[in-house]
Amino acid sequence: MQEEGNILRIFEETKEAIEKEDTVKLKELSNQTIHTASLSQDPDNIA
């Protein structure tokens, strides 16, 4: 499933952004997560 690959990528990039304390990247990744969840209507991504 394409969404699973996208979610995994977001998790990996989130880990890197946290380690670098990159708040701008974290906000961008948050927006991507919300976008993915709204497209797929996946309640597991909306919490």
Mean pLDDT: 83
Largest sheet entry: none
Cα separation of the termini: 21 Å
- Provide the helix percentage: over 70%
As a percent range, the share of strand residues is under 5%
> Rough shape?
elongated
Contiguous helical run count:
2
Low-confidence region ranges: none
Order of helices and strands: HH
Question: Count the strands?
Answer: 0
- Return Rg in Å: 11 Å
Structural class: mainly alpha
Describe the structure.
- It contains two helices and no strands.
- With 47 residues, the protein is mainly α.
- Helix 1 (2-20) runs antiparallel to helix 2.
- The two termini are 21 Å apart.
- The mean pLDDT is 83.
Entry keywords:
47 residues; mainly alpha; 2 helices; 0% strand; elongated
Task: Please describe the topology of this protein.
Blueprint: H1 2-20, H2 23-40
Helix pairs in contact: 1-2
